[in-house]
Amino acid sequence: MRARLVVFPVKGRNWCFSRSIDPSPEEIASAHAHSTLKDLWKKISSSSNSSAQNVELLIDYASNKMNKAWTGLEKAPEGTFKNKLHGLGLMLLSRIKPSEIFLKSISKEVTRVEITYPSSLNGRLVRRRLRHIATRGASIHRTCFYASVTLLPLSSALAVLPLPNIPFFWLLFRSYSNWRALKGSEKLLQLVSDCSYADNSVVPNAEGSKPESEESKHKFHNSQVSLWVLQPSKELEELHNKHADENDLNDSGISEICKNFSLNTKDVSKFR
Predict the structure, then answer these.
(1) Over the stretch 132-153, which tens digit does the pLDDT of each residue have?
(2) Domain boundaries of the chain, sorted by first residue
(3) HSE-up (13 A, CA, CB side) for residue 186
(4) Which residues does residue 17 pair with via DSSP β-bridges, in sequence order?
(5) pTM for this entry
């Protein structure tokens, strides 16, 4: 399955890294799989599964349950306790770094990435920045995952109180979120790294511009599979130049780029 990644500067040296909002049939099916404990147990008890696959199944099941619980809080009437919990959750979620959101969007179903960026940028630099965010993300989220899991038993002691154990559920969510960001980092690094079995190249953009000659040096000819494709975009370059003021992209520019390239405006704005 192919995913489109959009990369462009937003403020000075700060770049935005975002995935187009286009969930695939595979991801939709995965999100709805094993909705009951019975289905989960049947899958786990299968002799063909490895321990790593069983861990993934458990995490997917817990993720689906958390998403359903969050949806219930979101639909709670105004002024109720559940509605206040939802507001607290939004405040905590707003503190999550945009790079974590981006890395979580690189799911295990992704097998190829199409990297769209302004045509004025150097393709090698774009791919190098992607490798950097993947490498750094793997280190950070591995540490944060172990820290969150370590604190879970301590926060569970608060269950004796007559109030919802918010610290426990927050640490549980952070454990899941860091695990997904870690796996997304590893997947992205695998996809954008030089591989002896991949034929990687720049492709012409929609306006018919020619591939950059410097990127043609990265081709590997012993396979027809391309794990990553650089896609310089003249449209993205024009939108960026139209709304950029001294390398700072304004709100209207972010909104227009997000609309044209199917990005989440809130997530992109956080990169500033």
Answers:
(1) 999 999 999 999 999 999 998 8
(2) 2-24+76-269
(3) 10
(4) 7
(5) 0.76
